[in-house]
Structure formats: structure tokens, C-alpha cells
Design brief:
Layout (H helix, E strand, L loop, with lengths): L24 E3 L8 E6 L14 H9 L5 E2 L4 E2 L5 E6 L7 H18 L4 E6 L5 H12 L2 E6 L18 H7 L8 E6 L6 H9 L3 E4 H7 L1 H12 L5 E7 L21 H12 L4 E7 L10 H20 L1
Parallel strand pairs: 1-5, 2-5, 2-6, 6-11, 7-8, 7-10, 8-9, 10-11
Antiparallel strand pairs: 3-4
Helix pairs in contact: 1-9, 2-3, 3-4, 6-7, 8-9
Length: about 325
């Protein structure tokens, strides 16, 4: 029997004239990846504070379904894009270092097999940054990193091991990246210690505080940053810790705080970075859905991804 007016359970409203971002996402079947590809790194046991960031890959994917593919501001439509979803990297139940090593091995192997892959890594806490960039750099060569973050993330490894506060310490100390090839943007007042600020200064890291962001404007900072990398690196990786955004616009992260970056400034920066062919990787970390409100922070993360993709399409 055929019953009229029935639809599948939980089916959403369909409009023939609207393409949603979720329509572009396809499950990766193991073939060649030659463009955008999502991969989840759901690790948050390494966080120095309570964190449910392990749930973020799922909520960010869900948030993508809320938005259309059309950028009215730039008259750019992402509808022609394909986004391969590689799924989530399996974390070890108890071993943090083993989990981080799995992130490294997976990113490295995927990029070696698919050098045209543009990885979009969904954390997870910031501890996944060290193995992600380690795998990326071993596949890509000399890497420059643009880090949007309220914190330096160069805590010593003696007091707590490889946590979400140590990734850039690990990257520098292991020689994975040079300090001069790291640019930190959005470092916030009363969120860091003087010894760690001295550390990054001694290693040649370029630091733009939130005061710099307010006074110099983001467009100028991004252009300066790209100029610093010119002729010195083979590829650029962009790391976005969502706590760089002011707490009013991104409440769903462990280290919320006032005086942070405006989401629009971040979006425009990511879009411009996406336009640069040398920018070949993006990660978003520290989204915690368990303390979020109406998935506000996951939706900010989704817009980071959309602006990265928009930049890539504008450059074509």
C-alpha cells in the first residue's frame, strides 16, 4: 500500500532551489582525494581542563548542514565542490600519546597517497595540532603555520605531558617547524605567562596580540604574515583554536574569555588565506559542544570551513 503525504523519519524540508553544504559531503570510499577532505580527530582526554571537544567533529559536520553553498557577499557558489569525508581517526581508550601518534600516522599517510588533498582537520582539543602538523610537514616539506589562538600553547612538557597546552612547544623543540615559521594571531591579555611569552620571543615566533589586532587591523596582519613566509616555506598550515573568538560569539570552548577576536575578522582572514595557493591545510580545535549554546560555536567553526573553501574557489 502507498500512503500519501509521508516522508522519511527526521527528514528536513527540501527546497529545489537551495543547495546545502551537507549536499556536497560524500563518504570517502578509499579512492583518490584531490580536493577538500574532512577528517575528525576526536581527542580531548589530553585537555588540562574539562573538555568535551571529542564530540566536536560530529557537531561541526551537523552545523554545515544549516548553511547554503552560496556566498552573497562574493557571488561565489560552492555548489560545484565535493567534500570527501574521511571519517574520524580512532582514538586509543586510555593512551594519549598513542592517540596522538595515530593522528600523525593517518595525516601523513593520507597526504603521501593524496598530495592534492586539502585537509580540513576537525578537533578535538589543541593537542592534536602537534601530530597533525608533524604529519603535514613530513608530507609537504618546510611548513609555515598561522595560528589563531588566545594562548601561546608552549607550556613545558614536564608538568603535564603532551597536553592541549603544549603543541607548539613540541613542534619547535622537535624541529618540526622553526620558531621563525610560526605566526600567532589573537594572543589575549591575562591568558598567558611571561615565561612562555619570553620563550616564543626567544624562538623568533611572530606574535600579534589582540591589541595588535585592534590597532593594525586583520587585513594588514595577514598580508604581513604572508610576506614573512615568502620564499621560506613550501606550504602553509592554518590552525584555528576557537577560543581566539570572543566568548560572546563562541561560548562553547573550555577557555572562554573577554576581549577576543570578532568572528567576522576571523572569517575574512581565513577567506584571504584560502586564496593563497601555498595555504594547503586547515584545522579547527577546542570546540566543546557540551558547554555550547544552540551549537553557536560549532556554527562558527562551520563558517571557518566555508570561508576557507570560498577563498579557494575565488583563487581559481
Amino acid at each position: 500500500m502507498i500512503l500519501p503525504h509521508l516522508q522519511k523519519a527526521n527528514a528536513s524540508f527540501q527546497d529545489r532551489d537551495v543547495t546545502k553544504v551537507s549536499d556536497l559531503i560524500q563518504e570517502w570510499k578509499g579512492g583518490t582525494i584531490s580536493g577538500f577532505g574532512l577528517i575528525g580527530a576526536p581527542l580531548s582526554k589530553s585537555s588540562i581542563s574539562h573538555s568535551g571537544a571529542c564530540f566536536a567533529p560530529g557537531t561541526i559536520r551537523k552545523a554545515l548542514s544549516a548553511f547554503s553553498t552560496y556566498s552573497i557577499e562574493e557571488n561565489v557558489d560552492l555548489a560545484s565542490c565535493i567534500i570527501d569525508d574521511l571519517g574520524d581517526i580512532t582514538m586509543h581508550v586510555t593512551d594519549i600519546v598513542q592517540s596522538q601518534n595515530r593522528v600523525y600516522e593517518t595525516i601523513f599517510c593520507a597526504l603521501k597517497e593524496n598530495p592534492a588533498w586539502l585537509p580540513i582537520v576537525l578537533g578535538g582539543d589543541n593537542s592534536i595540532t602537534y601530530p597533525s602538523i608533524k604529519g603535514f610537514s613530513e608530507a609537504k616539506g618546510k611548513v609555515g603555520v598561522v595560528q589563531f589562538d588566545a594562548h601561546h600553547d608552549v607550556r613545558n612538557l614536564e608538568d603535564g605531558g603532551p597536553s592541549n597546552g603544549t603543541p607548539f612547544r613540541s613542534l619547535i623543540e622537535t624541529g618540526t617547524i622553526r620558531g621563525t615559521h610560526l605566526i600567532q594571531i589573537g594572543i589575549r591579555d591575562f591568558s598567558n605567562s611571561k615565561p612562555y611569552h619570553d620563550y616564543v620571543n626567544n624562538k623568533g615566533v611572530t606574535v600579534y596580540t589582540m591589541k595588535d589586532v585592534r590597532q593594525k587591523r586583520m587585513g594588514n596582519i595577514i598580508k604581513e604574515s604572508l610576506e614573512k613566509f615568502k620564499g621560506k616555506v613550501d606550504s602553509i598550515y592554518v590552525s584555528v583554536d576557537i577560543d581566539v573568538i570572543d566568548q560572546a560569539q563562541a561560548p562553547g570552548c573550555p577557555a572562554i574569555g573577554p576581549g577576543g577576536m570578532d568572528a567576522i575578522d576571523l572569517f575574512e582572514s581565513i577567506s584571504y588565506l584560502g586564496e593563497q595557493t601555498i595555504v594547503e591545510g586547515l584545522e579547527i580545535v577546542e570546540v566543546d559542544p557540551t558547554v555550547d549554546f544552540r551549537d553557536m560555536t560549532s556554527r562558527v567553526a562551520a563558517h571557518v570551513i566555508l570561508n576557507f573553501m570560498k577563498g579557494k574557489l575565488k583563487a581559481e
